[in-house]
Amino acid sequence: MKNIIVDTSVWIDFFNKKNVSPETMILKKLIENNKQFYICPVIYQEVLQGIRDNNLFEKIKKILLKHNMVDVDIMEATNKAIDIYRILRKKGITIRKSIDCLIASYAITGRMYLLHKDSDFTEIAKEFKLKMLTG
């Protein structure tokens, strides 16, 4: 079984029930089959911070907290994220959201697969050992 981190981009589409994609279908199957997968603190934050309705916020918070939190050294992941951003920037590639470098670093540091719908991760994977799960 692969250890998988599910990115914010997949969670948002999943909860909004829009943009049915191979990635959201993978997440749905993981949940339906009680398969283990992970989130990291920044994904937890990104998903929850945009929810305006308090009842929906509490519901989604409970759903997210049912899943495992990635357990890696925060400074190791942070330093890796800095390296990712700086190295790509020197090569003329700008990652739109630097937080994606941190999410990628969690996956790389934890030797995990990343399930996502964000082109920044595809750019990161071209230069770093980011393992991606595709639909």
Spell out the blueprint of helices and strands:
Blueprint: E1 4-6, H1 8-16, H2 22-32, E2 38-39, H3 41-49, H4 54-65, E3 68-69, H5 74-90, H6 98-109, E4 113-115, H7 119-127, E5 131-133
Parallel strand pairs: 1-4, 2-3, 4-5
Helix pairs in contact: 1-2, 5-6
Describe this protein's structure:
The chain has 135 residues and is mainly alpha-helical. The protein has one domain: Rossmann fold (3-Layer(aba) Sandwich). It is built from seven helices and five strands; from the N terminus they run E-H-H-E-H-H-E-H-H-E-H-E. The strands form two sheets. A three-stranded parallel β-sheet has the order 1-4-5, sandwiched between helices. The chain has a two-stranded parallel ribbon with strand order 2-3. It starts with a strand and ends with a strand. The mean pLDDT is 93.
Number of helices: 7
Q: The biggest beta sheet, please?
A: 3 strands, parallel
Can you name the CATH architecture? Answer: 3-Layer(aba) Sandwich
Gap between N and C termini, in Å? 16 Å
Average pLDDT metric = 93
Number of strands: 5
Measured as a percent range, the helix fraction is 55-70%
Low-confidence stretches: none
Estimated structural class: mainly alpha
Q: Rg to the nearest angstrom?
A: 15 Å
Please indicate the percent range of residues in DSSP E strands (runs of 2 or more): 5-15%
What would the principal axes of the Cα set say about the shape?
A: globular
Helix-strand string:
EHHEHHEHHEHE
CATH homologous superfamily grouping: 5'-nuclease
Give the total of domains.
Answer: 1
CATH topology: Rossmann fold
**Strand line-up across the major sheet:** 1-4-5
The CATH class assignment is Alpha Beta
